[in-house]
Amino acid sequence: SMAGLVDERAIGDSRITTRAYVATRDLDNPGRSNVWFLIDRVQYGLGLDYQMPFRFSNTDATFSFGLEGDRVTDDRRGRTNTNGVMGSSDNRKEDNIAINYGAYARADWFLDEGLSLTTGIRLTQVRLQVRDYYFTDSIDGSGSKTYSGASPVIGLVRHLSPAVSYTHLTL
């Protein structure tokens, strides 16, 4: 199941959009091998986007920036699968967690009615984590890894119609 809210508000010529969602999913899945997977998932996130028009060197433009964060937690268990019959005890029990945070800024310059220049940057951090709760095997498989990066963009966009655009160049 999933539920979400989006709120858009005009503030003068600017627009602010906020969003939030939450979702759950339960999976009871006999795998292809001798493992039966039981996964309970909870995910949620928040986001904020602000857009404002401006003029630069006699050119109409739009500046946008935003923040967002998301989290997914899977409670994973494994049991034996013997000819389609699930075993009664766990042979795997762990939480798998993924968290991401992002911030971005973007500017679009409308060079003429059919062409715009887009520039921007996005900063992202993703953390992947495993919390191992299956200690019967005397091995703690817990751990985490964090990735961070910046993604720049520059591109020319040809607007063929109000509903169709074609990107000429992106970085």
Provide the descriptors you would attach to this structure in a database record.
8 strands; 171 residues; eight-stranded antiparallel sheet; mainly beta
What's this entry about, in short?
With 171 residues, the chain is mainly β.
Q: In words, what does this structure look like?
A:
By secondary structure, the protein is mostly beta strands. The protein contains no helices and 8 strands. Helices cover 0% and strands 85% of the residues. It has an 8-stranded antiparallel sheet, with no helix packed on it. Strand 1 and strand 2 form a beta hairpin. 2% of the residues are buried.
In quaternary terms, these chains amount to single chain
Structural class: mainly beta
Number of helices: 0
Order of helices and strands: EEEEEEEE
